[in-house]
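>> received
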Amino acid sequence: MATTAITARNDKRKRLVDKYAEKRAALKEAGDWEGLQKLPRNSSATRVRSRCSLTGRGKGVYRKFGLGRNKFRELALDGKIPGVRKSSW
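>> returned
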């Protein structure tokens, strides 16, 4: 499990992205690159990391489900994710 500090930092980045989204779009449209540089670094959407919603794992996360590969497999095998079945052929 990721530490709570790491997940909290990522949540803070998400809030900053939401806060500055309109302002960033307006500055990009106007071509004001100096104004963009004055905004906080963490307000850029590329700084947000996709993390597992249950464990906070940062690698091997499926975007569609918001889960890490390990938790996804556990929940899928238990039948807790609708529409997902183990394949066999």
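>> Residues 76 and 82 are 8 Å apart (CA to CA).
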